[in-house]
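Notes continue from the previous slide.

Worked example: a multi-chain complex. Inputs as given:
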Amino acid sequence: MRLKRFRKILVLLLILSQMSALTGCWNYHEVEGHAIITGVAVDKGQNGYKYHLTFECVKMEGDQKSGGIKHVLLDADGDTLFDAVRNTLQESDKKLYFTHCKIVVISSDLAMEGILPILDWFQRNAEPRITLQFLVSKDKTAGEILKQSPQTNQLTAFQISNALNGATAFSASVDQVRLFEVNNVLNSQGMSLILPGIETKQSGDISTVQLTGNAVFSGDRLVGWLDKPESKYLMFVLGKVNGGLLLTGIHPGDRSIALEILSSKTSVKPVVAGDKITMKIKVDLTAAYGEQNTRINVLDLYPIKAIESSAGRTLSDGIADVVKMVQQEYSSDVFGFGNKIYENDPQAWKKLRSDWNKSFKSVKCDVSANVEIKNTASVFGKKGAE
Amino acid sequence: MKSGDDFGSAKLPSDKLEANIRYFRDIFNADDTLVVRYLDNTQNPELKFCLIYTDGMVNNRILNQDVIRPLLDYRFPEEKDKPLIDILALQVTLSNSVDKTDDIAKLVQAIVYGDTVLLADGSDEALVLNTKGWSTRSITEPESERVIKGPREGFTESILMNLSMLRRKLRTPDLKMRYRTFGRRSQTRACICYLDSLVNRGVLQELEKRLERIDIDGTLDSNYISEIIRDVPYSAVKTVGNTERPDIVAAKLLEGRVALFLDGSPVVLTVPHLFIENFQSDEDYYLNYVFASVGRLLRIFAIIISLVLPGGYVALVTFHQEMLPTALLISITAARQGVPFPTALETVIMLIVFEMLRESGARMPGIMGQTLSIVGALVIGEAAVNAKIVSAPIIIVVAFAGITGLIIPRLKGYLIVHRFLLLAFACGLGLYGLMLGLICMLARLFSMQSFGIPIMNNTYTKSLQDFKDIYVRSPWGMMKKRPRLLSTDLYRQAAGSKGDR
């Protein structure tokens, strides 16, 4: 009887001890024993090392009442990323802790050589999240991006990350690209990677960082940049616009009317007829009349229909221009046209796949944009100029 | 166990007054409170009587006016057509309860319980007259179960008064009250109450079976009995309910439960006791059902928080930092800078400190309360954090867990034990351990029974009707049925009436 009970307890203990080994995070560690990393910058190494990594980490200082956190930078060289991460332990008494890391900034010269080797450690290691946001530094090094002192947040990485999160809703020229998205694009067909760009900016005495256009990749290598206005039309093609402004005017080239984008829907339909490939790009946009930067009251002089159609023209011209520019300069399918063909006409894609980069250059675009102005608001007392 | 007053079936030794008195004096030797009062009838001095009672237990006015005066003045007939003792019982004494007996055990019990024994010369039987009269506490609202709305009366230490309070709520002969006595030396009176047409016979028989087994020298409070008859004696979960409020007892009886009153204790036991009853308050039934339901949900939620919070905090902060929002992680890290103890130890220490504060608050005289709050709040809360001995989040976690735990004082024992248990699991295995601990706890709860009824009865039922008084309190019009398994008669309102679902 007693033996039986003893055996029962023994079995239970055995099961429990086995279970403890099966848990994912079985190690007890105190929060203050780690350095919380918020951002990583990857540069080419010096002194014979392959990589030079800069980490922004959170430093607690003072008492909690003053909110006391400050950003502190660690840097280390290494032949691999992991090597560099471990090499920081020669400098820091705390292990780096990556689960709250938000951004990875890659220097442009490293990106030109290809980002695949860099991605591996971020995917393989347990700590970094798959929602890490990737950026490319337009400046010489990526490290100096993190070295800028943050202006609107306590930490530079958080400032950049928050700006990226809100980007599509307000400025509509860049969109965040997270680790899993980088991975998805690199592993899919007929689609090229773009990453948001970042650069330092000097405003008066203070130097800070700002988002700037998009880096265009061919495969995993950086091939060039799209500026801010071009990037905006790129976002329209990708259907990633949730807000922001569209500057237009009654006459071509005029940018005096700002339309606030309320919603935007893009459909891209490929038409493959033999060698001729035409992409039908259709944008449906609803907007509010946000500002008229004119001395006359445009709304009095022109019907809304006219403004709508001229805005549609601005939009479709812009899109056609950016497609043409990318085709000519980078021949990298950042719009995902190939992917659209693959989705709609897999048979045609089979033939096109092997030589897509060449075929992409000759893709014709048929852009139509339909802008609808939902509301204008009335401004009291505004008279047209006599 | 040998007890001093084991008289078996001894009888009054003789019909001589002096011999009988000597016999009682022998039994009560060295008891100076025993009063022996001799009386001679004034009309016929040949007739001698004797009253034996305990001083202080009797109502002197009743004794003087309604017993002694008639005995002195009564003109006994010359020709006796019946024995003297019967005349005394039927014609002379002015007492509402007169019992003729020659059983020594009964007579001794009567004397120690405030009754008066009347011996008459020439009779080998004695009369027991009801002259009980001692002071009792008046009916007040019980401190531990206060309500804002609803009846304010609470039980007292007198079983007769308590039974009368219950009887006033349930005026039906269906209410059965059966006396029992516990305690070899204390001879404490107890009473089993139930509604005959509703009671679950199985529960009643089980209760009687368990009460039968009790053999203890004294029962000073109903908890003595409660702990002996519990289903799981060593668990912190109670399977016997208790209350100090007559309205709660009446409500429980109306659901088919059985109540046990014990003389000398204002706490009445009810069985079976389901786990959800801990969360039900009598006020739930007196207030608007929406408010009552919100209150009950809050109570359940608070208890879960109180159980899980310390363990959960340790698990998140020391095992799963990636699960914390970044801002929270940073502020916790900031607070932990320079704190000497590991988080787990910190939590254990602060939980013990909280329990000590609570215990001293409960034990000390009320006037010292201010000292406790100053020392507790200022020294431990403010100073310890400023001195970097403990981190601020720990204080918040422990205080929150402690305060939510006080929402249901009845569960405090259960909470203390299981809070530490879950904390230990969490310190060892993180969230995984916490889940494991919770599963073990729930499995234990679901396996427990109270007098044959599962204590988690109805908490997981599919039938909506059974659900109506578990997590929320439905409007009275909708609660047609009594809780399942508790009662033989399921319908408490006519089945077809309006609002039936």
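Summary box: Chain B touches chain A through 27 residues (CB under 8 Å). The CA atoms of residues 198 and 435 of chain B lie 41 Å apart.
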